[in-house]
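To the team - adenosine-5'-triphosphate complex, inputs and output below.
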Amino acid sequence: MTQTMPAPAPAEAQTAQKPLLELWHLSKSFGGLAAVSEVDLHVYPNEIVSIIGPNGAGKTTVFNLITGLYRPNAIKNQSALLARKFATLATRAPLLLGLWLLCSVAGAALFQFIVVPAFNFIFSPIVNFEELIGQAATLVITLALGFWVGSNAFFKGVAGRGYWGDVAPYEPDIMGYTSNIIFDGHSLVGLAPDGVLKRGIARTFQNIRLFNNMTVLENVQVGMNARLRADLFSSILRLPNMTGEEKKSRSRALELLAFFGPEMVARQDELVINLSYAEKRRVEIARALASSPKLLLLDEPTAGMNDAETADAVKYIRRLRDEMGLTILLIEHKLQVTMGLSDKIAVLDYGKKIAQGLPAEIQNNEQVIEAYLGRKAAV
Ligand SMILES: Nc1ncnc2c1ncn2[C@@H]1O[C@H](COP(=O)(O)OP(=O)(O)OP(=O)(O)O)[C@@H](O)[C@H]1O
Ligand SMILES: [Mg+2]
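Output:
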């Protein structure tokens, strides 16, 4: 019945610590192209882990899967899946099943006794539902809507909490996917990017994505939205708690800029468009930090930088781990960055993980030299 994935066998010595991030047989195809294929990876708290590999190896796709921009490949037999979900639920989390039933009944009642009469009342000169389609049909529709609302609340979870993912975090086949992504003990699969951000994973992009016509400080403050508490009502009226939040967010953004040195603080009111490439990269990291993540994903953070800027980036990436206690997953082409910085390196080639190990092991791995260094040298 319910099948559990065999545990991936990580190359590193098994530590007593629990991994912060686990990729289980991660797969993603685009049409016929297997961009990522059965990749297993464990990232432990406070590690700096690098993903390297030739162009098109699938590195960015791994980030896009983790952050919810893409979903892993779905499994084919959806109807068998539903039955398995309910069977698992009934045995493992009967209370949750009860909650789902309650949500469904409450949803149906809400529609039947409040929404439909209200609708009929407002639109009675034009249309009366019961008269138009009959009482039985209205009842069926409202029940269906109620169950739909209830199911969504349950399977997707309220506010991205993903109840279902918490019931079966290690069973991707029950989740409906061939792979799984576990963060801090919970599955991320099915969460939208903002849900992933709220759980504590922030990222930067291979091609910097900043608001060019906003200031440095405003760009960093954008990252704080995931944590801001002020609601729409108080923001419109600019109630005291809103201005309070704004002040807090400003001072936090300045604190984050100060991490990169006084010259970044001095440029707080500069429009991003006027910054150098290296400075933009810093602002993008500061924006990611603004959401107070536990795990930071950096996609080629030194691309386009000269040697001095690269050396500087290596220093602050290490400080992100040492001073801020972050765990970092890094995609990087430059060997002088990955080799000096990483606790562990995973190598992708044509979507598959072909090697994993300490930097020195990777440097001497024949397959890696052939796939990565060899092909690059040939180019
Ligand atoms: N949305 C998409 N639709 C179709 N194909 C895609 C999509 N995203 C990525 N791919 C393909 O998947 C493969 C892996 O791409 P990906 O961007 O993950 O590679 P990468 O390792 O990050 O490469 P690079 O070092 O050039 O950044 C490539 O062949 C790419 O063309
Ligand atoms: Mg890429």
